[in-house]
Amino acid sequence: MSKPYPDASPYPTAPAAWDPENKFSANIAPPPYQEPSPGGFGAGYQTGYPPQPQYNVYPAVPGQYGATPMGHPAAVTVQPGIYITQIPLAHPEPDYLGYSIFTMLCCCLPIGIAALIYSIMTRDANNIGNLDLARKHSRTARVLNHTALGIGICILVIWIGAVIAINFIH
User: Fold this and answer.
1) Are the beta carbons of 108 and 64 closer than 8 angstroms?
2) Rounded distance between C-alpha atoms, residue 112 and residue 116, angstroms
3) Which of 30, 68, 102, 162 gets the highest tally of CB atoms within 10 A of its CB?
4) Could you tell me how many helices (H) and strands (E) the chain has, helices first?
5) C-alpha distance across the termini of the chain, in Å
6) DSSP 3-state assignment of 118?
7) Are 168 and 139 in contact (CB under 8 A)?
C-alpha cells in the first residue's frame, strides 16, 4: 500500500491496528478530548458557548398580559366560519340544450355530443351563479351547434344530389 502523504506529513497513512481486509477487526477508541493548544487552530477564540445573561423572573400579576385570574384557564375566542351561498343568475345565459339534442340526433353526432356537454356545463354555471363561465360555455355550445348544423345540411345536400344523379342516370 502506498502512502498518500510524504514521510514528513503529520497525517498517518492508516491506524496501527487497521487491517484493510477485515474492517471489523479494529476496535479503536476515539482519541480523548483535548483543549486546543494556544497558537494552534482557533487560537485567540473562546471555546464552548458564551455565558448566558440571567434574567429575573417575577410572578405574574392578575390582570397582566398572559396571566389568568384565580387560576382559571384562558378563554379562546373562535370566529364563526363564513358560508358563501351562490344563487342562480337572475338573467341566465342561454344553454342551447334543445338545439344540442337536435344537432346530436339529426345532423352530426360527434359535434352534437360536444355541444350537448357544453350546454350542460352552461346550465351548471348558470345555477351556481358564475356568469363568466356561463357565457364562455354558452358561446362554445352555440358555435358547435351551428357547425354541426352546417355539416348536417352539407351532408343532406350531397345525399340529395347523389340520389338525383343516380336516378337521372338510370
Assistant:
1) no
2) 6
3) 102
4) 3, 0
5) 104
6) helix
7) no
Please give, one letter per residue, the 3-state secondary structure of 68-113: CHHHCCCCCCCCCCCCCCCCCCCCCCCCCHHHHHHHHHHHCHHHHH
* pTM, full prediction: 0.51
In the 8-state DSSP scheme, what is residue 11? Answer: S
pLDDT 10s per residue in the chain (170 long)? 555 545 555 555 555 555 667 666 556 666 676 666 565 555 555 556 666 666 665 565 555 555 555 555 666 778 888 877 788 888 999 999 999 999 999 999 999 999 999 999 999 999 999 999 999 999 999 999 999 999 999 999 999 999 999 998 87
Interacting residues of 137 by C-beta distance below 8 A, sequence separation 6+: 93, 118, 119, 121, 122, 125
pLDDT of residue 54: 66
- 3-state SS record for 30-42: CCCCCCCCCCCCC
Tell me how far apart the alpha carbons of residues 87 and 138 are, in angstroms, rounded to a whole number: 19
Q: What is the pLDDT of residue 87?
A: 84
Cβ neighbour number for residue 122 with a 10 Å cutoff: 27
Give the closest residue to 105 by CA, choosing from 113, 94, 97. 113
